[in-house]
Prior knowledge:
Order of helices and strands: EEEEEEEEEEEEEEEEEEEEEEEEEEEEE
CATH superfamily: Kelch-type beta propeller
CATH topology: Neuraminidase
Shape: globular
Strand content: over 45%
Mean pLDDT: 87
Number of helices: 0
Amino acid sequence: MEVYDFQSGNWRTAAPMLTTCTNFGVAALGGKLYVVGGRTISKVGGQLCLDSVNTAECFSPSSNSWTQLPPMSIGREWCGVAALDSFLYVVGGYSYMAGSLNTVERYSLASNRWEPLPPMSTRREGCGVAVLGGSLCVYGGMNGKIVLNSAERFDQASNSWVALPPMPHKRAKMGVAVMDGLLYICGGWSGDCSRELDSAVRFDPASGCWSPLPPMSRKYHACNIAVLRGLLLVLGSNCTMQCRFSMTNMVECFSPISNTWSLLPPMAFRPHFSYANIVSV
C-alpha cells in the first residue's frame, strides 16, 4: 500500500495488507481504512486457481498496522463499498460461485458483526457507490450480460431500494466520489475494448441534472477517485491506448474552481487495479 503526503508531494510505502488480493473494495470510516473482499490467485497442480474471498481488514494510519475483521457472508470481488454513519456497506460484486451479485450486507463498528440487507433490484458487479444526501446510492456496473447506466438508492425508512435517474452513459468499474454535495463519476468501461472511458460527469442532486466535465488525459479502466482539499484525485490503474491495456501509476487531479485537470506525482508502483480513499490522521 502507498500513502500520498499532500504537503511534501511524495508517495511512501505503508504496511502491506494481511490478504494478498486484487479487485477488492475500500472505504474510510472512523479515521481508518477498510478493505473487503477481492480475488486471490493461487497455483494448484500447475493450474492457476482464482477465488473470490470474503475477508475484511482494517488499517490504522496511526499505528501503520492492519487488523483482521469478521468475514462477510459470501466471497465477492468488484463490490461497491461505502461508509454511512457507523456502518460499512458492501453491495453487489462478483462471486466465482454465484456470478454477478445483487446481495447487500453491512458491517457495524459497534457490534463488530455483519448483517444482511435487502438485495438490490439489479445484479451489479463493478458498480459505483457513494453516499449522497445522506443515502446510499449505487450507479452502473454489469449484470453479467450488459453494462448498465441505471442507478438505485437504499431507503432506510422503508428498508428497500428505490430507482434513481440513470447516468447519461452506461459504465462499470469507474471511479465515484462526492465533493461539496455533488457526485462525480470518472472513467470506467462501457462494454468493449473501444469504449474505455476518459470522460467524467457531475450530478447535482438539487437540480437533478448531469453535466459533462473536461476529459481526462487517458482512458482509465478500473480507476478509483478520492477527494482531498477540494480537489478530485483520479488514480489510474489500467489505462487503454489503441485497444490495449497497460498498467499505469499516473495520478490526475481535477479542480472544480478552474474546471481543469492536472497531473500529480505518480505512484511508486504500477498497480493492477488502484483503490484510493482519504483517511484523516
